[in-house]
Structure formats: structure tokens, C-alpha cells
Design goal:
This protein has 173 residues and is an all-alpha fold. It is built from eight helices and no strands.
Length: 173
């Protein structure tokens, strides 16, 4: 989180080997969450409704799992967790839709906050992470670089498509 960069300035210089106390545990717990959510979706949703999220979760589980197992790239995974700040508003949007509260001020306000946090915490964070990978490619083992690059190549288009769907659904009906 941004606070982590203030409290642990070494993190901004080294996302590979440096991480603040508790960061490894946070990433490990996040892997557990994504695994649980993955299994829950497999058991309780139709595949055609959840395949994108299942795919997303698979990529996150692999990338975060590498960070947890190697005790490296934990800082990079922390940056990736910034994306989840937007998930609060994505989930609230889903709850409001299920409660049939689409035509309310609460839904409208959430839509605006959702879009703003989407741009800041999803699009900008993924762009920064892609840039960081590219700028540090000489210092990253080729296998890890490949996993990171493939992860970014999958996540970025998925998030741009979801952004387009949100714009179309909530602002250009």
C-alpha cells in the first residue's frame, strides 16, 4: 500500500528482495483467499459466467504463489494488491445490482467512485507494474520475467475490457 512505501522506503527501490514485516504473510493470505474464491466459483457458479474470474484468479495464484514460495517479489505482489482497493467498489456495485438498486443515488455515487478507483488502482497500477518489469528486465531471471510479463499481458487487456464494460453499462446506457 502507499503507506508501506512511506514506512518502508527500501521497498520503492527493491521490489524483489525487500519487503516490510507482515508483507509475506499478507501475500500468503491473499493466495489463500484467491484459492478459496476459485474453488467457491467452481462449485457454485456456471463456468460460462465465471471463466474470466477463474482465469484471473489462476494468474494471481501462480504469480503470488511464486512470491510466497521464493520469498522474493513480495514487494511487487504488494503493489499488485493495490488493485484490490477497487474491488470494494466492484463488489458493492454487484450487491447494489442484485438488490435492484440501480436507479439510486447510492448506485450512481458508487459508479463514479468505482470508475475513479478503477483508473487509479487498476489501470495505473498495472501500467506501473508493466513499466517496472520492462525497466528491470536485466535484473530478473528470465523464467520469472516471463511469468510476470505473461501475467501483465493477461491482466491488462482483461482490465481494459472490464473498464469498457463498466463504462458502457453505467454511463453509456
Amino acid at each position: 500500500s502507499p503507506r508501506r512505501f512511506c514506512l518502508h522506503p527500501g521497498l520503492s527501490e527493491d521490489l524483489v528482495g525487500t519487503h516490510p514485516p507482515g508483507a509475506h504473510s499478507l501475500v500468503a493470505v491473499s493466495v489463500g483467499y484467491f484459492l478459496e474464491d476459485f474453488v467457491d466459483m467452481l462449485c457454485n457458479q456456471k463456468f460460462h459466467q465465471s471463466w474470466e474470474l477463474l482465469f484471473h484468479h489462476s494468474v494471481v495464484i501462480v504469480c503470488f504463489g511464486i512470491a510466497v514460495l521464493l520469498h522474493q517479489y513480495v514487494g511487487f505482489a504488494l503493489v499488485a494488491l493495490l488493485v484490490e482497493i477497487n474491488s470494494i467498489f466492484l463488489h458493492l456495485r454487484q450487491i447494489l445490482l442484485m438488490a435492484n438498486l440501480v436507479h439510486t443515488t447510492c448506485y450512481r455515487l458508487n459508479s463514479i467512485i468505482n470508475l475513479g478507483t478503477y483508473v487509479v488502482f487498476r489501470i495505473a497500477t498495472l501500467a506501473w507494474m508493466t513499466r517496472w518489469l520492462f525497466l528491470n528486465r536485466e535484473n530478473i531471471p528470465s523464467a520469472t520475467y516471463a511469468v510476470g510479463t505473461v501475467g501483465m499481458a493477461i491482466m491488462t487487456p482483461m482490465n481494459i475490457i472490464l473498464f469498457y464494460r463498466l463504462l458502457r453499462s453505467d454511463f453509456f446506457k
